[in-house]
Design goal:
Blueprint (H helix, E strand, L loop, with lengths): L2 E7 L11 E5 L3 H4 L6 E3 L5 E2 L1 H12 L23
Parallel strand pairs: 2-4
Antiparallel strand pairs: 1-2, 1-3
C-alpha cells in the first residue's frame, strides 16, 4: 500500500523514548489501529515504525511481484512451437 503523510499516536509519549514510532504506510496494521482522533501529524522526532519501513522498502523495490500503479507492463508474445 502507498506511503501516506506521517503521523504518530498520542499515546507514544507513554512509551520509552527509543520505542516511540511514527507511521507513514496505509498497509501498516499498527497504524490502521490508531483512531483518527488519536493521531497527530508529523514524526515528532520518533523513529519510523518497523512495519511501515519494511512495507515502504518492498514497495519501492517492487519485490511484491505486482507492478506499481502507473507502471507500464510490456505485452508478452505467445510463442508456439514450430512443427514443420
Amino acid at each position: 500500500m502507498p506511503e501516506i503523510p506521517e503521523f504518530f499516536a498520542l499515546n507514544e509519549i507513554t512509551k520509552p523514548r527509543e520505542k516511540r514510532v511514527y507511521h507513514n504506510n496505509s498497509g501498516c496494521p499498527a497504524g490502521k489501529g490508531i483512531r483518527v482522533k488519536e493521531r497527530r501529524a508529523g514524526t515528532c522526532g520518533y523513529g519510523i515504525c518497523e512495519d511501515c519501513r519494511e512495507r515502504n522498502e518492498q514497495e519501492s523495490s517492487g519485490s511484491s511481484g505486482q507492478p506499481r500503479l502507473g507502471t507500464r507492463v510490456p505485452k508478452r508474445r505467445l510463442t508456439l512451437p514450430h512443427f514443420g
